[in-house]
Amino acid sequence: MDGLNMSRRIRRTPYTGKVEEAGVRGFSVVNHMLLPKAFGTTVEEDYWHLRKYVQIWDVSVQRQVQITGPDAAALVQWMTPRNISKAKVGDCFYIPIIDANGGMINDPVMLKLAEDQFWLSIADSDLLLYAMGLALGRGMDVEITEPDVNTLAIQGPKAEDLLASVFGNDIRNIGFFKYNWIEFQGTQQLMARSGYSRQGGFEIYLNGSHLGPELWDTIWEAGLPFNISVGCPNLIERIEGGLFSYGNEMTRENNPFEIGHGKFCVTDGSIDYIGRAALQKIAAEGVTREIRGVVFGGDPCPTCAKPWPVLVGDLQIGQITSGIWSPRLKKNIGQSMIDRNFWEAGQAIKVALPDGSIRQGNVTALPIS
Amino acid sequence: MDGLNMSRRIRRTPYTGKVEEAGVRGFSVVNHMLLPKAFGTTVEEDYWHLRKYVQIWDVSVQRQVQITGPDAAALVQWMTPRNISKAKVGDCFYIPIIDANGGMINDPVMLKLAEDQFWLSIADSDLLLYAMGLALGRGMDVEITEPDVNTLAIQGPKAEDLLASVFGNDIRNIGFFKYNWIEFQGTQQLMARSGYSRQGGFEIYLNGSHLGPELWDTIWEAGLPFNISVGCPNLIERIEGGLFSYGNEMTRENNPFEIGHGKFCVTDGSIDYIGRAALQKIAAEGVTREIRGVVFGGDPCPTCAKPWPVLVGDLQIGQITSGIWSPRLKKNIGQSMIDRNFWEAGQAIKVALPDGSIRQGNVTALPIS
């Protein structure tokens, strides 16, 4: 881990002071903002804790692109191959955003707040500028803003009990990828059953930075009986769980089918969107690579800052874009696009690490069980 | 300085291996890519060295947005209030990019490569997505790509002699904010007299990542007689020099007039661009704040990660967005928007630092002499 030089350009969040008090040691930068990534504990300790208890995560980097106005639904639909007319108010929809070639631009969660109001909770690219360009170019009647919303994730099997103790038992009725409204300090706040782990939990889309420290403290104190700890998206858990990271597992070089999201793509011509012709062609021909898990042996692998080639014989058939040691499987695990001829589970492969070592392993399904 | 967690999403550059060999200790993240920010030396040592000798900087984060095609010039013109028809092939134009309200979206240097080919050398926002959105929305006939160009800056008073020793004396004829072509390993490469310092120098827009390490080594070895060192944009030097950083000194909350770039904005109606009406209104009414230098006393100030209020009495009249100790002036220096009634040089102010201390100082012109 190298140092990160701070500046105003890399924005702090309403919770940054809290994570500093909690002893944060490392950050990443997403959407020009700080994402806590390391505390005094190890990734392995956090992994076991997350699977058993509950954690509080500052995921403010999941910025909201708010699109409102008479043409809001039309603009969002134009950006994604998923049929958003099926979304009701209260739904969270995962929507791939693609370019004219079908390449991934972002993979936000869309929250439908009203027929003419949407939040796109984004991964690491300036989707606001893209949406603004489209709207200006086409002369659409929309307003596009980044509201003062900073998301706090409460993740882990004890999240529901913890949040019910704070906000009441009604939150137990929120379905997966649905949201509802909770009251906090006299304000209405959006809470969804969602989050960047497979351990269950919720995300509070806090509207109003000034309420951030108090929300953090409220949940922290209520969480003590549940053995709450401060955490962050856990690399072991998300790789095992088959959760992908834009910029890591996918870039504009990849289409939604390659990351297994073909099910969200309407290619029968019934809706129109940017990149439709490209996706129809891909759907007809089939993809030439698709994301898979990779399990491989040897000592715990280092951080994957640069993709690691995945080989069969001398042929490169993929590249691991996120990898780490799994203490549960006692093996290294990774996520990799794998060429079509080699993507069956069990396929023997080799991984070429940056230290020059070659590790034996095999392709596996995602999630990695 | 906290830690930075590495991943593929935060892209390495062709020179990252070289800066690691040179003992890099800290990075920033710009355009989803690593910008070296600290080495074994101090910012002060680097400052004195930069003013006297020559440095090699990895500024690959200055990504190029390449716009080509029949509508390329029309698209670029639509994005900026500067009249780009005055640019000739071989020119570098600083062009503010603004939104419909006149707010700054980016402030790239435009390189005109041909009548239908432009590079926009960008600051920290995804201008490519904005340009793509505009083009898709309006149905313009352009191609927009990020070419494999990674810029190496050679900065300091000895830069010209050093580069002439490598590429020949013709490079001495390149004018300020002009470019020409040099030969390297049988390839033609673009070199401009430009850079993010006031000490003179050049930037090589290396096209082809595979040539990066060799270009670095070639310049390094030729630079030894000139006392070359590895460096990065120097915070002391750029604050003194009145060079601004997008995301620090300006955001979408600011218009080009506020950063003193009204001279680049055509508001007489002779050209059309996004935000024209907003800029015409601002031009007619005058700005209510404008960027200035601030000099203030006391011990050396910390890193400015969150703006520091600038006060006259109890009234906040500005905020310092970048600040540091100047070893030359033996005072703290900063850059701040200052309200109209207080922006005259000499105005007494106070700066409120995050440790609670209040420092006495005054407004000054930029550059700070």
Structural category of chain A: alpha+beta
Question: Which chains make the largest contact?
Answer: A-B, 52 and 52 residues
What's the structural domain tally of chain A?
3
Query: Could you say what the CATH architecture of the largest domain in chain A is?
Result: 2-Layer Sandwich
Into which percentage range does the β-strand content of chain A fall? 25-35%
Spatial strand sequence of the major β-sheet of chain A: 13-14-15-12-4-16
Task: Identify the notable features of this structure and list them briefly.
globular; Elongation Factor Tu (Ef-tu), domain 3; 22 strands; Alpha-Beta Plaits; 6-stranded mixed beta sheet; 6-stranded antiparallel barrel; 369 residues; homodimer; Gyrase A, domain 2; alpha+beta
Describe the structure in your own words.
The structure is a homodimer of 369-residue chains. By secondary structure, chain A is α+β, with helices and mostly antiparallel strands. Chain A has 3 domains: 16-60 and 148-238, Probable tRNA modification gtpase trme, domain 1 (Gyrase A, domain 2), CATH 3.30.1360; 64-145, Alpha-Beta Plaits, CATH 3.30.70.1400; 288-369, Aminomethyltransferase beta-barrel domains (Elongation Factor Tu (Ef-tu), domain 3), CATH 2.40.30. Helix content of chain A is 20%, strand content 33%. Chain A has helices spanning 16-21, 43-52, 72-79, 127-138, 159-167, 212-223, 235-241, 276-285, and strands at residues 2-4, 26-30, 33-38, 55-58, 64-68, 92-94, 97-98, 104-106, 109-114, 117-121, 143-145, 149-155, 179-184, 187-192, 201-207, 229-231, 289-296, 308-312, 315-326, 331-339, 348-352, 358-364. A 6-stranded mixed beta sheet of chain A has the order 13-14-15-12-4-16, with helices on both faces. A 6-stranded antiparallel barrel of chain A has the order 17-20-19-18-21-22. In chain A, a hairpin with a 4-residue loop joins strand 19 and strand 20. The radius of gyration of chain A is 21 Å and the shape is globular. The interface between A and B is large, with 52 and 52 residues.
